């Protein structure tokens, strides 16, 4: 396996597992919680078949990357992404984030700029700001996130099954657009993630990305399912489209949060058209 070192924890190196395939213009895919880089399977194949170089990596704490006890915040995640870009010497790269991965892409741009970034794709996005506050009244009530943390702490594996049911809208799409085997594989991947990382990432979801969003000055694809139960579209994508000037906005009808699998054909076409 291939790894990029991004830091140290006591005597151990913190390393990110990555895959780098194909040639042509580079596209770097940043995965969602609580999965890994392989969750981009359907997009990776479509991009490779269209002549792109495709890079995926596992966020710290997830997949085959190291599982440290710290660093589960978006400043650290963006620094990890920067290390990947610099180590692989990527130029004019398109950054594509899904779900939690959209936070990495957005914070990276807000911190490091877009000099070397050609385009951005934000799929099932968490920006601009998820938490309900006095200046964000349409956000999500914070008590819901406390309940998520309590459920993870109480029985992480049971919570993951519940989460993935809503991730794929299994009650409506199970056996049709997503098989029980795909669901089980997602649970298997999630179950092997760092318990600490799984828990600590919940706080990261409440990051305010509004200043980072203001820094996005490159063409950006915003794509979201209108049946997303994890990151409701009214609190995320429909706000985001009014904040990024140069954007292409796509709503997937009846698309759940995990639409990169359930509605892969539509998602892939939108990405390829945008690129």
From TrEMBL:
Keywords: Hydrolase, Oxidoreductase, Peroxidase. It comes from the Archaea. Coiled coil: none annotated. The keyword Iron-sulfur does not apply. Residues 26-264 form the AB hydrolase-1 domain. One of its GO terms (cellular component) is membrane. GO terms for molecular function: chloride peroxidase activity; hydrolase activity. It is an enzyme of class 1 (oxidoreductase). Its EC number is 1.11.1.10. It holds the Pfam family Abhydrolase_1. This is Chloride peroxidase. It comes from Methanobacterium lacus (strain AL-21). The lineage of its organism: Archaea, Methanobacteriati, Methanobacteriota, Methanomada group, Methanobacteria.
């Amino acid at each position: 396996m291939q790894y990029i070192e991004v830091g140290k924890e006591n005597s151990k190196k913190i390393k990110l597992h990555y895959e780098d395939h194909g040639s042509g213009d580079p596209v770097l895919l940043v995965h969602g919680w609580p999965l890994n880089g392989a969750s981009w399977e359907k997009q990776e194949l479509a991009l490779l078949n269209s002549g792109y170089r495709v890079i995926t990596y596992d966020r710290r704490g997830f997949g085959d990357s190291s599982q440290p006890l710290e660093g589960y915040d978006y400043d650290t995640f963006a620094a990890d992404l920067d290390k990947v870009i610099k180590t692989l010497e990527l130029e004019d790269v398109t950054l594509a984030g899904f779900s939690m991965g959209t936070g990495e892409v957005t914070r990276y741009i807000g911190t490091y700029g877009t000099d070397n970034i050609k385009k951005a794709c934000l799929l099932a996005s968490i920006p601009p700001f998820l938490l309900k506050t006095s200046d964000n009244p349409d956000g999500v009530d914070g008590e819901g996130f406390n309940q998520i943390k309590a459920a993870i702490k109480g029985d992480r594996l049971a919570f993951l099954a519940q989460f993935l049911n809503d991730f794929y809208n299994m009650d409506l799409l199970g056996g049709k657009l997503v098989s029980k085997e795909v669901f089980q594989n997602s649970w298997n991947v999630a179950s092997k993630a760092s318990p600490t990382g799984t828990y600590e990432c919940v706080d990261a979801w409440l990051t305010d990305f509004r200043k980072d969003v203001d820094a996005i000055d490159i063409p950006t694809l915003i794509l979201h399912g209108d049946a997303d139960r994890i990151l409701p579209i009214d609190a995320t994508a429909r706000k985001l489209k009014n904040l990024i000037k140069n954007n292409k906005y796509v709503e997937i009808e009846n698309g759940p949060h995990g639409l990169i699998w359930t509605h892969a054909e539509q998602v892939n076409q939108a990405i390829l058209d945008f690129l």
